Amino acid sequence: MNTLREPITLGGGVVRRDTTLADGRDLFYYDDPDTTLGADRGIDQRALDPRPATATMRQDILTGDWISIAAARQNRAFLPPAELDPLSPQTPTNPSEIPSRYDVAVFENRSPSFGPALAEAHGDAPEAPNPPRGLDDLDALGLGSVRTSVGRCEVVCFSPEHTGSFGTQSVTRSRTVIEAWADRTAALSALPGVEQVFPFENRGEAIGVTLPHPHGQIYAYPYVTPRTRRLIENISCTSPDLMQRVLNFEREGSRVILAGEHWTAYVPFAARWPIELHLMPHRHVPDFAETTDAERDELARVYLRLLRGIDALYDTPTPYIAAWHQAPVSASRDTVRMHLEITSPRRAADKLKFLAGSEAAMGAWIGDIPPEAAAERLRDSIEGVQL
To answer: How far, CA to CA in Å, does 293 sit from each of 238, 257, 273?
Structure first.
């Protein structure tokens, strides 16, 4: 039943209000500490089609990777006009996904790549047959192997406005979204079958964004992603404190672009992209759920400065992927440190780097801009940012 449940007060003075959409999907409102919104929220009264069956994933036996085949994603909205924005609050003429005005809203994706995992955990969702049977099951190689893509995909709306990005939000709103990321990371990590949680933001049509509304997503995977598996292998081949050693190495070099009490941002030694910066906490933290209020408070300002500095490089907004890498749910949590990687293909005001033969086919990257030169430009740009 899509009724509003009792509010829950989180860190930073953020208040969460839980409800469900007309088809049983979860919806969470996160109110700013200084919100002007009232306590009431509207009820979703749309007549919606049944939720699609959970996608399936197939194993590529040559790499061991699992590929989710999610045909329902073909039906998602593509660059709708403002009056039909599916992430804006509902109006009599716009039956959007969110019934009420909001500060920050998080809801289950209507056409997910992963999940739902269990019928009893997700309202009206169909139960998933043939789910993965643990990490050992997924590690085993088998020609023609198929599993159900259990997990969950959520949309995180940073603002009710039709256009913008994380970087266009206020410091207060930035802090609210960070609190939502931490809250959802903890909740998704507790779901059966979830092995890794990944918050991210795609920004700009050059990245493939189909909605200009300021939003990001959270994927809860049924496996440990290939990128993280490679990191875990490298840690095992070197030392358990590899990520601390990387941070120390970068802090002693010339590629640091911003440093605070709890976080340091830098262009990595072997940057792949024309614009690439990493942000890492000074202490070992596996994911957002384990960060302190002080770390979240500083991050709210640091993150905005980074994103606005990237936008200040050129006269028009810069496309990017902001990817929050977190430790797996049940493995390597004492060695894999959460960190942010922001990457952009923009190599000049009117030029993009396309992944062609060497990068796309062989994974053999060729950098266009020396990381030290990129760091100098980013430092200069970020120094002029005012919050």
So the answer is: 32, 23, 32
